[in-house]
Amino acid sequence: MKRILPAALASVALSLPASAEVAISVYTGYQEAPHSRVKGDDGTNSFNFLAEWEGKSSAMPPYYGLRATWWRSQNIGYGLEFNHAKVYASDETQVDNGFDDLELTDGLNIFTANVFYRWPGQWAQGKLTPYAGGGVGFAMPHVDVQRGDSKTFEYQVTGPAVMLAGGVSYAFTEAWSVFGEYKGTMSWNDIELENGGNMKTDVITNALNIGVTYSF
């Protein structure tokens, strides 16, 4: 086994294209969400209303994301991403519809497998690189919902999700760069509530991100 593992790793390394590059990115930003329809029942009574969502990006826990991209060539990259987005129902939405709590705030966690395309060497002597991409995956929010005697407070895998992003990165060394981007997600959430209840809502988030990337 001691000989097999190094040999396998060496074989994988030799099979990588010479231009292969791995980029690890961390970002935060300002994120909000438009209204969306919420419907279901709390185990006793049904509900169907339009929720006004708030992002509260800087409130604890804050909005952030982690992204790993394997650039297989100068232009095409594949990777994985975790996005800790958040949505809080406004106080008016909660009061008008009988909720004590209605939020997905630790967070509305979106996991995606991504494909990105970039245009290197275009501006500022190659330091500025525009890019765009998208991904598909799933949502795993922390559900914090209370309506009457029904209280749900747990992580759930609630359904599929997609993301789109586009921005520009600026390389200030060979390994380090900063970036700014727009990022949008959509998740189709089918949530199980206590007392046999259920809640469905399709949530869109819009965010302006800033971040830093380390490439090797």
TrEMBL record:
Coiled-coil region list: none
UniProt domain Outer membrane protein beta-barrel: residue ranges: 7-216
Keywords: Signal
Cited InterPro entries: Beta-barrel_OMP (IPR027385), OMP/PagP_B-barrel (IPR011250)
Protein name: Lipid A oxidase
Annotated organism of origin: Aliiruegeria haliotis
Gene3D superfamilies for the chain: 2.40.160.20
Extent of the signal sequence: 1-20
Pfam families in UniProt: OMP_b-brl
